[in-house]
Amino acid sequence: MSLKRIEIRWHGRGGQGAITASMILAEGAIYQGKYAQAYPEFGAERRGTPTRAYTRISDEPIYSRAPIIHPDVVVVLDPTLDKSLYMGGLKSNGILVMNTKRSAKEVRDIIGREDIRIVRVDATRIALEILKTPIVNMAMIGALLKSVPVVDMHYVEEAIKENFRPKVAEANILAMKRAFEEAEII
What we know:
By secondary structure, this protein is an alpha/beta fold. It has one domain: 3-Layer(aba) Sandwich (Pyruvate-ferredoxin Oxidoreductase, domain 3), CATH 3.40.920.10. 39% of the residues lie in helices and 22% in strands. It has a 7-stranded mixed β-sheet with strand order 2-3-1-4-5-6-7, sandwiched between helices. Helix 2 links the parallel strand 4 and strand 5. Helix 4 runs antiparallel to helix 7 and helix 6 runs antiparallel to helix 7. The longest helix is centred in the C-terminal third of the chain and has 17 residues. It is globular.
């Protein structure tokens, strides 16, 4: 995976914030002086249905707007999603960032791939403790940044502050930082 360009595919359910996380990360990258794009893909646009979002970050202009079929990183906000929805196309030496109570080793055993890195964090617990709601998107950005420092956290914090009211932004930044600290990588 080249840090000159990274492609990230986000998987969640409507209402969990995968699309917002994709956009916040891209905005942080732009604040840092990189090129970035973020866009969603919907099925039925209802709360609770599976959603996908895409983020591309590059040191050079990005011309493709096609869905990311072979991502460098897959971020899974909802651990109840079937692995067939999110594992397809993940590159060898790619990274799976998973919101789960399971250990990284347990996730590896379930996924059955030795050629990728596994990052796991209990983002639901973090979100419930800090935000008092199971919206895990900013926590998942923290776990992602621990495994792939593609954007300096400071710039992501700025993007969060631009998109949320001050108290909500402060709580989301805290959730992101906590997940960064607690993420387990194998």
